[in-house]
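# nightly structure sweep
# worker-07 picked up a monomer target from the shared queue
# config: single-sequence mode, recycle default, output format = structure tokens
# input follows
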Amino acid sequence: MIRRQDTRIVFRRFLALLAFMAAIWGIQALNDVSGYGRNTLFGRIPRHLGGIDGVLAMPFLHGSYDHLISNTPPLLMMGGLLALTATRALIAVNGVIIILGGALVWLFGETAIHVGASGLIFGWFGFLVARGFVDRSPITLATSVFIAMLYGSIVWGMVPGQTGISWEAHLFGARAGVAAAIFVRSNIHAPRLRNVDQR
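# output follows
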């Protein structure tokens, strides 16, 4: 019974991830047709009140199809690992990454229109790597090592001064992910499974 319930939960999470990806690609198609006007309207602009809505909108907006294509594989890979290994705290983890990381970019980022899901990617990266050391279960440690080996080179994206790249979104996204790993209870030992008769 527990296994069937867990399977349904993971299945719903994968559906949510696919819906998220479909929304990003749909918005990209609309944005491309309209000359990327939505980036100006909803992109994150540091220290401008008109750009604060970009804290939530930024992951859905991209500067080109190439930009979105480069973000799609890590979104699917890391999002899939989160769907498989995180517990009910998944919403809280994403909330910390998006809101904290986005707020830090809004406060300290260079004045420009910041768009793209890379802040979320770096947040998931920071969370998945840090969580292994916080939780220290075999599964989360293995996930940490796997992600570090597969995507460890992306840390160069946090180096300042790269033209056309929001290194601030990368840096603050990763920091927000580490904060989520430390402060949000998200180990794989789901509390909902305690005191349940296993048959």
